[in-house]
Diguanylate cyclase (GGDEF)-like protein/PAS domain S-box-containing protein (Rhodoferax ferrireducens), 289 residues
Amino acid sequence: QAKAAGRNTLRFFDPQMQAVVSARAALEAGLRDALAGDQLQLYYQPQVTGESEMTGVEALVRWLHPQRGMVSPAEFIPLAEDTGLILPLGHWVLETACRQLASWAGRPEMAHLTVAVNVSPRQFHQVDFVDQVLTLLERTGAKPQRLKLELTESLLVANIEDVIAKMTALKRVGVGFSLDDFGTGYSSLSHLKLLPLDQLKIDQGFVRDILTDPNDAAIARMVVALGDSLGLAVIAEGVETEAQREFLADQGCYAYQGYLFSRPLPIAEFESLAQSYVLQNKELLAPVK
Ligand code: C2E
Ligand code: MG
Ligand code: MG
Ligand code: MG
């Protein structure tokens, strides 16, 4: 069959490959519509400290596709990266998160929260990325100190001076930085100490089997120790059980994010969860009569 199709035309007549190509094209066209219309939403997942205090939240994009329902970012973010659609998409995410931050500033039960936003390498490498963020902060009135940008290690393999310069410019106004999915990439430890980071995020891949896989446990321990010695807070993602949380706490982990506390939630549900956290803590702090 391969021979009959010929060497150069093979992939165009391979029905399986053809299906993949057209599914991708459909997804890309759909994503353009999603950006133009109002099919994108941010969901919010709490970040909780060892003292059961919710100090922050990660904003995670969702695509509510008119036919397919909820499409996972794991599916469309890589596509958005390849096609360049990540630039308008990433800008929309940043703007939406900043608006949310600004609207929380006047609400005592929400005002303390930081919002973490995922920034893809292609988005960060734009020459005017720093200006975009500064403009959004100014336009929305969001406090830079409440915004945290999540970067991945893939950003750190090339052009490290430019990365440091951009981070430094944003840090100067108060924006924080977290290194997402830490341990899955190839960042060198010598680079790590050059970066003006605030936080390391242990990838959920190491958390999943942390109780049964000694290698994962060792890596998690190493990340916490590394954070300690570099003066960075360490947060673990994908924490699903109390046993995982306890294990991480024993290592000295500072905060946790995962289904144990909550799935990522639409804004209204997230706000009522955040409120209940504040109420709970007030009760704990209230003087005993
Ligand atoms: P991430 O930044 O590492 O986000 C964590 C992912 O783990 C999220 O998947 C979250 O829903 C999921 N998760 C949280 N807690 C648990 C848990 O306890 N167990 C398990 N199994 N999973 C958990 P999600 O929302 O599907 O996002 C996947 C990835 O897509 C994100 O990974 C991030 O890399 C990317 N992404 C999401 N939103 C954005 C965005 O606005 N911009 C960019 N550039 N990337 C985004
Ligand atoms: Mg993230
Ligand atoms: Mg992550
Ligand atoms: Mg991850």
Notes: The chain has a mean pLDDT of 92. The two ends are 84 Å apart (CA to CA). Residues 45, 60-61, 72-74, 77, 90, 93, 118, 120, 150, 180-181, 204, 237-240, 257-259, 264 surround C2E (ligand 1) (CB under 6 Å).
